[in-house]
Amino acid sequence: RKLNIPYRIYGGLSFYQRKEVKDLLSYFRLTCNPRDEEAFKRVVNYPARGIGKTTVDKLMVAAGERKLPIWDTLLQHLHELGFHEGTKRRLVDFVTMVRSFQTMLEGQSAHQLGEYIARTTGLLQDLYADRTPEGISRYENIQELLNGMKEFSEGNEGTDTPRTLPDFLIDVALLTDADNDDPNDQDRVSLMTIHSAKGLEFPHVYIVGLEEDLFPNLMAVQTRADLEEERRLFYVALTR
């Protein structure tokens, strides 16, 4: 991405399609535009804060009846909607949190505010608490997103105007548009697992991850059968 090299991921999600990345980006979008209803619905109860689907559905109905966005309905009519005190308090806390992010839009760089949002919402802590391989991968994806925001923000150093969160979202929109370019365009790097490469051939092939305990996998060298399977996979990679 940094070098603007076109690429395609086979059998997997592009970076910005991953759930955890979309969750944090939704917080960013809601901060920049509180009337973004898809972003609101995605994050109002993530991480879990006791605002369930029934509450959100009731908000949507109330907003529709009043012909207002959900956000405006919350600000103007919350006490008319019949929620019990606990639910009202949680909704007020959520609104207060998002509005606190909005006050920082002007003075903070994209990275400063992005990292603050990731921590303050509890999203980072929620991902870090999941120590499964999948959970660790999701946490690392968020760290990668924040590192990308740091590079983006530093790209404007030396000027009086920092690159802000809205600037970053524009940049992401351009990148995701590039991801959706013509899938039949062959002039791009193809990223895939060895399994996905079976039956395909390319003029140039690079095999990444040929490191001890990674390929062959540490667990695969425990038995001869597993080691042979790793060797067969390696042969597939070599003959693409």
Question: Could you please describe the fold and organization of this structure?
Answer:
It is a single chain. By secondary structure, the chain is an all-alpha fold. The chain folds into two domains: 12-179, PCRA, domain 4 (Orthogonal Bundle), CATH 1.10.486; 192-238, no CATH class. The protein contains eleven helices and two strands; from the N terminus they run E-H-H-H-H-H-H-H-H-H-E-H-H. It has a two-stranded parallel ribbon. Helix 1 crosses helix 2. The two termini are 25 Å apart.
Unreliable stretches, pLDDT < 50, 5 or more residues? none
Q: Categorize the overall geometry.
A: elongated
Q: What is the CATH third-level topology name of the largest domain? A: PCRA, domain 4
Assembly category: single chain
Number of strands: 2
CATH hierarchy: architecture of the largest domain: Orthogonal Bundle
Sequence of strands across the biggest β-sheet: 1-2
Q: Major sheet: size, sense and barrel closure?
A: 2 strands, parallel
| DSSP summary: helix tally | 11
Fourth CATH level, the homologous superfamily of the largest domain:
PCRA, domain 4
| Distance between the ends | 25 Å
Average pLDDT over all residues? 88
